[in-house]
Amino acid sequence: MKPLSRKATCNTHGQDSSYFLGWQKYENNPFDEVRNPNGIIQMGLAENQLSFDILESWLDMNPDAAGFKRDGNSIFRELALFQDYHGLPACKKALVEFMAEIRGNKVTFDPSRLVLTAGSTSANETLMFCLAEAGEAFLLPTPYYPGFDRDLKWRTGVEIVPIHCTSSNGFRITASALEEAYQGARKRNLRVKGVLVTNPSNPLGTTLSLSELNLLLDFITAKDIHLISDEIYSGTVFSSPGFVSVMEVLNGYENTEVWNRVHIVYSLSKDLGLPGFRIGAIYSNDEMVVAAATKMSSFGLVSSQTQYLLSALLSDKNFTKKYLFENQERLKQRHKMLVMGLQKARISCLKSNAGLFCWVDMRPLLHSNTFESEMELWKKIVYDVRLNISPGSSCHCTEPGWFRVCFANMSEATLNLAMQRLKKFVVDSTTNNSNNRSLDHYYSAKNSKKKSLIPKWSLIPKWVFRLSSRDRDRESSDER
């Protein structure tokens, strides 16, 4: 008899992705401007540390909330005792009003349709349990957040089928890509239960267009499936075009079945920079989904203390208005710093308007148009340049040479140092390596708009298949 379960011994968590491996390398040699100035700079972590001073100022001016008091009297004992897993009504009310404010109050949210979860990780997994059986599938546009391989699949057994988006149109979702993914799933005998998108996109840093949202709603209507819109970066949109929530488009579907098949995931981890507080949410018009998700939330509750503090914070409309404006301005300036730093290194990136990162085009630094070359470049950047960035293959991008680079989790001085390191690396690489394509040659070829003849399926990184097929085969073998 085996001492552990298959879940404990299988390798479907996705921990062997270069996304997580880069974190491990950073943790072994973390940069510190005083104690370890030659260490690895963490640019693979999408944290928002730009506006902590605004939050800290509010805490200083509101000692009752921070000290768990109401009208000067301690409510510590009240908060310390057991709370119903439906969540504190004041917290849910404040959260839905904050979500509406981010969306320009063009839509409203009903607190009774909101389920509190311990972050968006818990929210996405809970929705998978509610909407799909093990072995059924969700379609995700590529490139997508590497953690989804863990969040959506590991415990639920749900499969991910990629919707292949390409740089030819800025990685936008198309009708043909949706249909190709759907038919590809059917050929694998996978029942498709829905589509999951991030809006704004992680890792692209772009917002979905109105035409893409309409396309998605038309698609799920035709296929009779669900749509999950993960909108945890909705408050980080710092330039045009503005953010359009799927809820705005859904308002025209109130009397249709689609009304109950669209679900939103939200969290305060990115907009407020509070991932350690573990407060996320599911919003759905489907009463059965809300009821089931509420029951499941008992396995990942948000503490009463956290709910009380955040209900007071988010109920302060003067604060939320000031914070959203100032935080977006700071993100805009920091994004500009990164883009200018990349330009000085003669590196371009996808034009973006949201998020805590840029989708950076390092294809001119590849020796060949392969993922092996991408991994070789990534290792050089981690070990030699000492920057932890996330390679596109970890995000399931079908084109080698794209990287996600984060900019909001460090000081300006650290970001400038990172750009200096990268510029030196690019100069040295293009000067000393005769086998490497020159930047001039690359951009000349790029401007000619010649399409690559390499089939996209040949560009999919091997570890993508290893995470799904290898361990599924192992589990099937164990069952036999």
UniProtKB/TrEMBL annotation:
PROSITE patterns: AA_TRANSFER_CLASS_1 (PS00105). InterPro entries: Aminotransferase_I/II_large, Ethylene_sulfur-biosynth, NHTrfase_class1_PyrdxlP-BS. GO terms for molecular function: 1-aminocyclopropane-1-carboxylate synthase activity; pyridoxal phosphate binding; transaminase activity. Its EC number is 4.4.1.14. PANTHER family: 1-AMINOCYCLOPROPANE-1-CARBOXYLATE SYNTHASE 9, BIFUNCTIONAL ASPARTATE AMINOTRANSFERASE AND GLUTAMATE/ASPARTATE-PREPHENATE AMINOTRANSFERASE-RELATED. Homodimer. This is 1-aminocyclopropane-1-carboxylate synthase. It comes from Carya illinoinensis (Pecan).
